[in-house]
């Protein structure tokens, strides 16, 4: 029983399913969960030559050792919450691979990346020939809404019987004050009629949600410098207009605000006009 028996790798893997499975896992690449600490992926230099993890047939050709495979690739770091298991191969950053394979003396092409943040865009709408109001573009909203201050300042009436519950970012729920029907608003050279929900204590004046996009068949063109234009179609007149968007500004209306064109303190009304950013 103490005599030694020599087996080839193919024979060993064909009669030992557990060994074959471990070999497959050692050679297979994996996704590693992202985490705060960079971890250098390394491999045990004593690992033997392992057969291909993709072919269990007797004709399978052995693959290179994992160490040799890793050494042939640029070293990469993985953001991981814990060290990856032995044999794990972390997918590398494409730009890092490009830099490491760049011929000597050749300057790399600069990589363009996204901004850390970009300003929310808005357009100005003329409400009933009374005042221009900054309207935030938000295609992620299912409704068009305005602050209570805008409705009260401009004398826009609304039906208080039609309210909907609104959930805020912190999870609390509040109800709208009502629905203003068929509010005429001029954008550029066209006038559209909107169904607008009135919101108490809204952190904006007007928010144009998906119903606005659907009505106007809006098309947004965003440029690399951050500027943006929006093309609007009027289904009632078949007119089309393209207007530039502007960065969002602070709300300019409060519940008891006077004519916003004054933009000054009015002690008799207890209102202080808002200011632009």
From TrEMBL:
Pfam families: Asp_protease_2 (PF13650)
Disordered as annotated region, ranges: 17-47, 219-277
The protein, known as: Aspartic peptidase DDI1-type domain-containing protein
Biased composition (Polar residues): 219-231
Record SUPFAM superfamilies: Acid proteases
Lineage: Eukaryota, Fungi, Dikarya, Basidiomycota, Agaricomycotina
């Amino acid at each position: 029983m103490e005599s030694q028996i020599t087996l080839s790798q193919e024979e060993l893997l064909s009669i030992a399913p557990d060994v074959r499975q471990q070999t497959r896992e050692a050679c297979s690449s994996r996704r590693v969960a992202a985490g705060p600490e960079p971890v250098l992926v390394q491999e045990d230099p004593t690992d033997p030559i392992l057969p291909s993890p993709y072919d269990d047939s007797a004709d399978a050709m052995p693959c290179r050792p994992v160490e040799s495979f890793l050494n042939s690739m640029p070293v990469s770091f993985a953001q991981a919450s814990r060290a990856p298991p032995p044999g794990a191969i972390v997918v590398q950053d494409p730009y890092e691979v490009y830099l490491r394979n760049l011929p000597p003396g050749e300057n790399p092409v600069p990589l363009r990346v996204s901004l850390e943040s970009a300003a929310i865009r808005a357009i100005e709408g003329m409400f009933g020939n009374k005042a221009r109001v900054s309207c935030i573009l938000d295609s992620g909203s299912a409704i068009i809404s305005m602050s209570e201050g805008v409705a009260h300042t401009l004398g826009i009436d609304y039906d208080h019987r039609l309210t909907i519950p609104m959930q805020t970012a912190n999870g609390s729920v509040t109800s709208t004050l009502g629905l203003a029907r068929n509010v005429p608003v001029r954008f550029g050279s066209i006038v559209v009629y909107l169904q607008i929900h009135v919101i108490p204590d809204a952190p904006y004046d007007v928010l144009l949600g998906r119903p606005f996009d659907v009505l106007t068949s809006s098309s947004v063109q965003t440029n690399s410098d951050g500027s943006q234009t929006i093309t609007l179609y009027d289904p009632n007149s078949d007119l089309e207009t393209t207007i530039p968007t502007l960065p969002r500004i602070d709300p300019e209306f409060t519940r008891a605000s006077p004519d916003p064109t004054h933009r000054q303190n009015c002690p008799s009304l207890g209102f202080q006009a808002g200011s632009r950013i």
